[in-house]
Amino acid sequence: MALAATRAAQLTTTGLESLGWTDAEAAQVAAHAHVARVFAVHRSDIEVRGPQGLDRIDRATAGGLDGVAVGDWLELTDGGGVARILERRNAITRKAAGEHVHRQVLSANVDRLLIVTSCNQEFSLRRLERYLVLACDCDVTPEIVLTKADLTDQVAGYADQAASLLAGVPVHAVDARSAEQVGALVASLRLGETLALIGSSGVGKSTLGNAIGAPNLETGAIRKLDDKGRHTTTVRAMFPLPSGALLIDNPGIRELQLTDCERGISRVFADVLSLAERCQFQDCQHGAEPGCAVREAIADGRLPARRLESLQDLRTEQARNAEILESKRQRARDIGHKYRKLNWSKRAKRGQ
Ligand SMILES: Nc1nc2c(ncn2[C@@H]2O[C@H](COP(=O)(O)OP(=O)(O)OP(=O)(O)O)[C@@H](O)[C@H]2O)c(=O)[nH]1
Ligand SMILES: [Mg+2]
Ligand SMILES: [Zn+2]
């Protein structure tokens, strides 16, 4: 509750707008409906905040909270129960994870997704591309925050590489521990705007959160050997900032695998795909085919070869994950079918 008290103290405006309420939510409920926004999701309860302040809802007794995510809006019953989760404007949904493919909503109703990466061994264009695809696929505007700018004299090089991945993507290079260096980011924050931080463990998401005004997020040292973090943040939670914006700090992501993100891919790889439209063959694989506009662009330096490789790798990975997902669904269908058959034969035996 100490955490909840700190958050309560930080909220300066009590109106729903300060919690991120928009016309999209207003259109879904009656004018005097009771609503609250989800600030943290725990195993047994959730923390919500509405015009009346902070509250905790027990998941078992409330019901109706399956799949609830930080950032969701809830319509409450007169008795304080949960009537329903309002339709989301958008959701950062992780559709696949390593061997176990599943869908997981990381943050809901997000205005700005800050993809955090560091100027050290963690920096990877491939990884950044994945995060950008995820953001674009979820219809959220991405921004890149390059932390640990103080640890390199190559900041401009890192920033240029990051910016080259998606036309117009803002890149903020900072020492995330410095309130002064994050000043421009803070100045851009608006009342009721929801920001979410995602990235690997140890890149400085919580450090950045603290610098932009979140109340004392826990941070932890990284391993010297490989710059990997130790998964310090374990709970997804949202915090009001002094600027009036809301910040969702996420735990570090181990490995971001993608499936079913074709829309995101088509946006992030628009450069490769628009060249591909000019290939002589419609089904060109951009290998040895004659008249390949993609190969031509690579040969004369207009397109970095790694962009094509990235696109092809992501497509292969998507296809593999889609297969795993489909075989899981099939297995679930088979089990459901067997179960129904068993129940049916039991009832038949009992003569029901
Ligand atoms: N030098 C330097 N250190 C930083 C910077 N940002 C973060 N750190 C340090 O990096 C370590 C990890 O920072 P965290 O904020 O805990 O990282 P995180 O992304 O929240 O990690 P998880 O919660 O594990 O996902 C801490 O020791 C921070 O002090 C930076 O810009 N410069
Ligand atoms: Mg953290
Ligand atoms: Zn081609």
Automatic annotation (TrEMBL):
Stated role: One of several proteins that assist in the late maturation steps of the functional core of the 30S ribosomal subunit. Helps release RbfA from mature subunits. May play a role in the assembly of ribosomal proteins into the subunit. Circularly permuted GTPase that catalyzes slow GTP hydrolysis, GTPase activity is stimulated by the 30S ribosomal subunit.
GO biological process, any: ribosomal small subunit biogenesis
Main location: cytoplasm
Native source species: Abyssibacter profundi
Gene that specifies this protein: rsgA
Database matches in InterPro entries: P-loop_NTPase, Ribosome_biogen_GTPase_RsgA, RsgA_GTPase_dom
EC assignment: 3.6.1.-
Chain residues that bind GTP: T147, K148, A149, D150, G199, S200, S201, G202, V203, G204, K205, S206, T207
Domain EngC GTPase: 108-254
Protein name: Small ribosomal subunit biogenesis GTPase RsgA
